[in-house]
Amino acid sequence: MKPSAIYPDLKDASVFITGGGSGIGAALTEGFLRQGARVAFVQRSDGAGFAGQMEAETGIRPLFIPCDITDTGALKAAVAAASEAHGPVTVLVNNAANDQRHATEDVSEDYWDRAIAINLKACFFAAQTVLPGMRAAGGGAIINMTSISYMMGNAGYPIYTTANSGLNGLTRSLAREFGPDGIRVNALAPGWVMTDKQKAMWVTPEGLATHLDRQCLKETLAPEDIVGGTLFLASSASRMMTGQALVIDGGVVVTG
């Protein structure tokens, strides 16, 4: 993946990405590395092989830190380790999520708590943890990955869409609270991105055809299509943009 634009201020930036070793997260990790950033990423599955691949392809090895982001103590420790290695985190990408399908009638309290912990709680505590370092550095950028699912009112995963909507509220409140410190907080809402997970678990020819009918642009979205918008939100090119939601979905939903 070659960068379509270069953002000089991202060179040597300390970037922290949750779920940065697969799917959209892997594309984001590569995108920041190709800008010359110092990237740390966390996930539960082993990301050492991906880190080695990125080193071979970009010349920069990302720091992989094993972490279950629902364990707030482990998440805080991971941010501390990334800051020790690369300097205070000045770009946080809350990317990790789980859009597992579920029926309202089948949801237990434990399932609710787990789904919210992955899709919303971890984003809050990751942001809380990086704020002191960003403040000391004179500013920073937080990008919360949401989804167009809640905008469409999609059925089949109500806790996930609830968390998506909650992330937008979190984005706006943190933007207001920490704007005076030069910290920008924005959301990015992808459409249906054809990751390996999506194709293996939920993409069907009929479902994809129906979704493409709703898109203005008649091409499927790939993880790489989310990189440009994320880099823009992380860089000084968007220096006066905060509290906003950027949609990259091929033209399914209309905002504004």
From TrEMBL:
It comes from the Bacteria. The keyword Nucleotidyltransferase does not apply. It holds the Pfam family adh_short_C2. Residues 13-192 form the Ketoreductase domain. SMART domains: PKS_KR. The keyword Oxidoreductase applies. Keywords: Oxidoreductase. Belongs to the short-chain dehydrogenases/reductases (SDR) family. This is SDR family oxidoreductase. It comes from Albidovulum litorale. The lineage of its organism: Bacteria, Pseudomonadati, Pseudomonadota, Alphaproteobacteria, Rhodobacterales.
